[in-house]
Amino acid sequence: MGAHAPSEAVERTAIKKVSVRLVPFVALMFFVNYLDRTAVSFAEPNGMGQDLALTAAQFGFASGIFFLGYIVLEVPSNMALHRFGARRWLARIMVTWGIVSLLFTWVSNSEQLYALRFLLGVAEAGFFPGAILFLSQWVPARHRTKILGLFYLAQPLTTVFGAPLAGWLIGRHGLFGLEGWRVMFLFVSLPAIVLGVVAWFYLIDKPADAKWLTSAERDWLTRELAAENARKTGHEGKHAKGDLKAAFTSGRVWILAVVYFGFVYGLYALAFFLPTIINGFQEQYDTTFSVMDKAWITAIPYLPAAVVLFFWTRHATRHGTRTWHVAGPAVVGGLSIPLALYMGSPTATVAVITVTACAIFAALPVFWSVPSRFLTGAAAAAGIALINTAGNIAGFASSYITGWLKDWTGAYYVPLYLVGFFMLLSAALMIWLATRHRTGEPAPEPEHQSLEALR
Predict the structure, then answer these.
(1) pTM, to two decimals
(2) CA pair distance 21, 134, nearest whole angstrom
(3) Secondary structure E strands in 64-177
(4) Which residues contact 394 (CB under 8 A, 6 or more apart)?
(5) Where is it mainly found (predicted)?
(6) What CATH number has the domain bearing residue 225?
(7) How many domains is the chain partitioned into structurally?
């Protein structure tokens, strides 16, 4: 045991430094990314929908067309990140999306809104899978769920803090002669440009170049990651090799893409339409909310979701990832979201939606620890991008279909039943996949309780 003590100490300090030095900054980038992406959901019920004369279907299309733009450059962008390095590519992405987001301040009709949402997707293409790939290349698999869980906290916390921030900015109506929702777009866009410039100087592509690690920590990380990649190659043969074809011919990649589709369908149905649903409480329950009231109510489901995400990923890290860490939340989310339709008050409805949000956010970071355990190199870049592309298709589909079905049926019953269906499908596919494949992850090491293969 004494012989292992030095390496265990080096492992602890190396992972701690990565967690403190890189994860918060990349999470902050994700926070700004998600806020810019979903700012339109706060703008629509607070003046933009009326000023641009948008129907629910038009708003859904404007929300969703972002993802079509993202899909256009998704895989090429992640391959470029693999080739040029995360520092340059993620910085470039942030600056360009910040500039496009800034232009929303002056949008004047639905056609311009569609065009800018599409361009925003093109500008942001590759950021999320690139961030996942970047963090996955800094820590061995047994620490990956913890690291991705810390990173993923930024997504629910974006709404926890972003919704009140958006509400406050919208309340600055008249600043610079702009409507409140235009003021919001102006001020949520600028941080992306600033962070993009900072990222160019702050991020480092690989552990071997990190001067803030000791030589022992750099050597340990480099050695562990190289050995892990070698094990994946030997374990999985051609499917783990660093070539583009491996990702597109792996059945597991395609199944995981469909699983992710279901989660993201639910995620963005809530993200884009929850503020509108809350706005509808006023007529449904004969009450009145201020802009800040609506912002705070929108934030409610996401704070418990962040707490559940943290402890769920911690449990998966300590005890080993199991199929139920992903499939279980999918079942809970799939059953709870339609139940929200039958609650008799805003409080009860938001409480059930909170359960759904907790389920979605608990599963997502654990899910993302899976692909990098059987793909490496260029195949990992392409595979993660391919899976995320399916999520972007879900983002478009959930946004447009939810709005279209709302206009067609006059209520959110059918759209939310469809959300439940897709999440239950994700659970079923995850269970089916686990019965047929192992991820190629080595068995857990007793001292570290590392991630083990889904079973």
Answers:
(1) 0.73
(2) 14
(3) none
(4) 67, 260, 261, 262, 263, 264, 265, 268, 422
(5) membrane
(6) 1.20.1250.20
(7) 1
